Amino acid sequence: MPIKKCYPHILNGFLSILIWAILVSTTQADTNTSDSRAFKRFAEQMASRHGFDARKIERLLAQSARQDDILAAIAKPAEALPWYRYRPIFLQQSRIRQGVTFWEQNQLVLERAAQQYGVPPQIIVAILGVETRYGRYRGKHRVIDALRTLSFDYPPRSEFFRSELEQYLLLSREEGFDPLQPEGSYAGAMGIPQFISSSYRVYAVDFNRDGHRDLWDQPEDAIGSVANYFREHGWRHGESVAVSASVAGELRHRQTASQLKADSNVAELRKRGVVPKHTLPAEQPAGLVILEGKEGPEYWVGLPNFYVITRYNHSALYAMAVYQLSRAITQRYGAGR
Asked: From the candidates 44, 104, 111, 131, which is the catalytic residue?
């Protein structure tokens, strides 16, 4: 084929590529312009509310990046699974063994936390086990990227995460760290106990008394902070978390949702056909917890401390996983002593 007859095809191909490149660059420019405007508004708010340098905040956000895998992860949380699939994620022999080891290594600190805050060691250990395997896995995303993505590219909860971004920048100023450096979960949770920024600022404690609240590298601070968190959310010293139950009558067929809050009592639950498998006082505050087992629903009477655990993660699945892991660790820990 003569070369001159190729020119129209080459030209058409070149024009197609050129048009595609223009469209892409225009889209990127629009996105960047939109980001810049949103960043500018946020930076100005940080300046007016907290005395930050707005230009520095804008430059900081410009160094963050939207992460699509974060948006994918938040759309499919593990708490959407049925209980019979959720439970094996956390009730593993390796996690139980690691929990016993963590308890042995931090026995004195856990006892001090229990004495000061009234929260038993096994609950603290179980929280740290569920969250990060006792500090082994703390997340792979830069916190600034997670909060930037969810603040500006996740409309369903953008207001909440923008508030967390605000809290994160305040925290970085208070604790003296570079906000571009820390890594955490896809939702911006940080450190061994996976505190979000607002919880870090309010509930984290300097339990090892070194002048810093370090939840990344100091297990003592993580232990004390979890205990403080539970105390502040109403943990009831000496009380249990949940009791398995049977359900009879119409309730078995009608009710499918769990009551996270113990806003009823044992006597009222009994009238509705809920029978705890262990004796509880009639006036004991309680709620009905229903979990999707492999062979059918599992029924539990959730006590006030069950509700307190859901303040860490607003899920009945989460609270039950923490409770059952705490019991498994306690049994293994007691057997070895």
From this structure: 131
